[in-house]
Write a structure and sequence with these properties.
By secondary structure, the protein is mainly α. α9 packs antiparallel against α16, α9 crosses α18 and α16 packs parallel to α18. It has 20 helices and no strands. The radius of gyration is 20 Å and the shape is globular. It has one domain: MFS general substrate transporter like domains (Growth Hormone, Chain: A, Up-down Bundle).
């Protein structure tokens, strides 16, 4: 492992930085400001969730049309352009005089952060590595849990002392003064890494071919695994987006709940690395039936929870799925669909993920306004996870026959 890290440090660090910086556009980060945003702009839970849904769906549409740029544009140029747009989105959040500007800012945050930054990172790992693809994706994806561990406590403190608008200005400054210069240094050698772990020009997928987006939507596998692609981002988004409702329902404070992010991050890191190793060793398809089991079990704990320490258990168990899912998807897509058109193929998966995160806040927000609090909703989501896990068993059996 140390030799692998040493040989590929520049490229692994690029992926890690991109996933870490994507934090500013992730739901869990934006949700830290939810109370202040709703109060400032006079939005209900349903209104805020609806605006978030519309903005995120719009970002998904743009990502679908621009995601293939990862296949055709040098990462050094693409990452610079997206970073500048990302910083502009943070400035938009900081000034947002009305709901229209707020919606535009959220749209850009979602497109740049959850969309392009994560898309660039994982697609690059999938293209650059073959034999160690799972581990490369796992290491690059560590930026997500590191951000989840560090940034909530920092920005909760900043919001309390400087206000929510100034805090968004600090996020913009971090992108301009730290992220962009670091990316420029890391991508000064914008090429594939050398050595035994490096990928050749392209690696074929299922049936010995390089799949296009139009090919995969005509194949049975796409529809069989679509519910699994949708579920982790849906639930992972709403658990953080509706954390204010959880706090209000249970009588907890966000300060009491904030340490849960550290637990989430630690467990996510651990299971991302485990899943990366398992994907390389056994094949990522073998993880399909077990990915959602921890997430499903964790949701059954939330409704009866009485103390905020149970929140830590919920996040810790759920993080097993979230960490493993990142590594799984990064290894699964190039194994099944090849790497020549990986940017275009993965942009479709990313769009599906973004759509899932878009509809989650809207649906759960409407249910909350109707009197169904989020902890109660979690019971239904938990049942769904366990049923879907069982449904993946015949999918794996059929897929393995086609892969051999």
């Amino acid at each position: 492992m140390l030799t692998f890290l040493a040989k590929n440090l520049r490229w692994l660090a690029t992926g890690l930085l991109l996933t870490f910086a994507s934090s500013f556009g992730q739901t869990w980060f934006i949700s830290l400001f939810a109370g202040e945003i709703r109060e400032t702009h006079g939005l209900t839970n349903g209104g805020w969730g609806g605006l978030y849904t519309i903005a995120t769906l719009a970002s998904a549409a743009l990502l679908f049309s621009r995601g293939a740029l990862v296949d055709t544009m040098r990462l050094s140029r693409l990452s610079l352009g997206v970073s500048l747009l990302f910083a502009l989105a943070c400035v938009g959040m900081a000034v947002s005089p009305n709901v229209v500007v707020l919606g535009c800012a959220v749209f850009l945050l979602r497109f740049c952060g959850q969309g392009m930054f994560s898309h660039m990172a994982v697609t690059s790992m999938g293209r650059w590595f073959i034999a160690t693809r799972g581990r490369a994706v796992a290491i690059a994806s560590l930026g997500h849990p590191v951000g989840e561990a560090l940034l909530p406590m920092v920005f909760v403190a900043l919001i309390g002392t400087l206000g929510w608008r100034v805090s968004w200005g600090i996020a913009a400054a971090a992108l301009l003064l730290i992220v962009i210069p670091l990316l420029a240094v890391l991508l000064a050698q914008d090429r594939q890494p050398q050595g035994e772990a490096a990928a050749p020009e392209a690696s074929a997928g299922l049936g010995g071919k390089h799949w296009l987006r139009r090919d995969l939507v005509r194949h049975w596998l796409f529809y069989a695994i679509l519910p699994l692609f949708l579920t982790p981002p849906f639930i992972g988004t709403v658990i953080f987006f509706q954390q204010v409702n959880v706090a209000e329902t249970k009588g907890w404070t966000l300060a009491q709940m904030a340490p849960g992010y550290v637990i989430w991050a630690a467990v996510s890191v651990t299971f991302a690395l485990i899943a990366g190793w398992a994907s390389d060793r056994f094949g990522p398809e073998r993880l399909l039936p077990i990915l959602l089991i921890p997430m499903g079990l964790s949701l059954f704990l939330l409704a009866p929870a009485e103390t905020h320490t149970t929140w830590f258990a919920v996040l810790g168990i759920m993080a097993m799925t979230q960490g493993a899912a990142q590594s799984f998807l990064g290894a699964f897509l190039p194994r099944v669909y090849g790497t020549r058109h990986l940017g275009a193929v993965r942009s479709l998966q990313t769009v599906i993920m973004v759509i899932s995160t878009a509809i989650g806040p809207g649906i759960t927000g409407v249910l909350i306004d109707a009197g169904v609090d989020f902890p109660t909703q979690g019971i239904g989501f938990g049942i769904w996870c366990l049923v879907l896990s069982a449904a993946m068993l015949p999918v794996v059996a059929k897929l393995r026959r086609e892969l051999t």
